[in-house]
Design goal:
alpha/beta; Rossmann fold; binds nicotinamide-adenine-dinucleotide; 2 domains; 7 strands
Length: about 260
């Protein structure tokens, strides 16, 4: 299947590693021009170099923080200067800290709001003028299975990502007439630093060895393993592409069958 991504300008946030990198890698392999951003230098530039070497694609990299509106604008401007506009955006950022209700004060709630929900509003707002100018585009948010089944230890994620899901659905209705699609990608357990970090936190809290926790968690997945970032990236490339031209306002779950909900 030709995804039609050749030459498209795609911005992928939080893409120096993990799920963002997985999507950037797949769209680069499809011939897209890719603009990645992440907070850490030189890592983000090294990741861009790796993408260039492994895919031969045009790749640029910017240092940005999803919580900082000015750095989002700088990233958007650099992308337009290099690639002439924006056809696709992946909204993504590091996840908020794990914990239960009693662990979080107002400051923690505010920080989670800025990292996860307000950042999505700002990233989407920043690319809309260019997408409108080009007559369309595709926006994909990275959320979590917590939007369908809240996860006990991830209260901040549960709440803020539900907001992102609702934002995407609302915008899908509002922007459809302009040819702009908005969809969500839901990772289950994908083998990245974030997943390993959460399992380490659990190991530290409970005293159960990391390997035991990892094995038990993987065993709960019907496909009996964690997903890989590349597998997640393929789903992202699909939603960003013309192959998904009639899909908007949807939530696509990539979890090896872990979720028990029918919808
Ligand atoms: P990761 O830790 O492997 O990578 C996180 C990326 O986010 C890195 O590129 C990092 O530089 C970037 N980042 C961190 N703070 C940032 C900030 N303030 N602004 C911009 N970028 C920032 O994590 P991942 O597994 O790729 O997860 C990506 C998102 O998906 C996270 O929000 C995570 O909570 C969520 N998620 C992941 C899984 C999973 O199984 N991996 C499951 C559910 C949800």
């Amino acid at each position: 299947m030709d995804l039609g991504l050749e030459g498209k300008s795609i911005m992928v946030a939080a893409a120096s590693r993990g799920l963002g990198y997985g999507i950037a890698d797949q769209v680069a392999k499809e011939g897209a021009r890719v603009s990645i951003a992440a907070p850490t230098e030189p890592r983000v530039h090294e990741s861009a170099q790796r993408l260039r070497e492994e895919t031969g694609a045009d790749v640029i990299s910017c240092v940005f923080d999803a919580r900082d509106e000015k750095s989002i604008a700088r990233w958007r401007d650099a992308t337009i200067a290099e690639f002439g506009g924006v056809d696709g955006l992946v909204v993504n950022a590091g996840g908020p800290p794990a914990g239960l209700f009693d662990d979080f004060d107002d400051e923690a709630w505010q920080a989670a709001y800025e990292l996860t929900l307000l950042s999505a509003v700002r990233m989407i707002r920043s690319v809309l003028p260019s997408m409108r100018e080009r007559g369309g585009g595709s926006i994909v948010t990275v959320t979590s299975s917590s939007v369908k089944e809240p996860i006990d230890m991830l209260l901040l994620s549960n709440v803020m990502r539900s907001g992102v899901t609702s934002l995407a659905k609302s915008l899908s209705q509002q922007l459809a007439a302009e040819g702009i699609r908005v969809n969500n990608l839901v990772p289950g357990a994908i083998n990245t630093d974030r997943l390993r970090g959460l399992m380490q936190t659990q190991a530290d809290r409970t005293g159960v060895p990391f390997e035991e926790i990892s094995k038990a968690r993987a065993a709960t997945v019907p496909l009996a393993r964690f997903g890989e970032a590349g597998e997640f990236g393929q789903a992202g490339a699909f939603l960003l592409s013309d192959a998904a031209a009639y899909i908007t306002g949807e939530t696509l779950v990539i979890d090896g069958g872990a979720m028990k909900t029918v919808w």
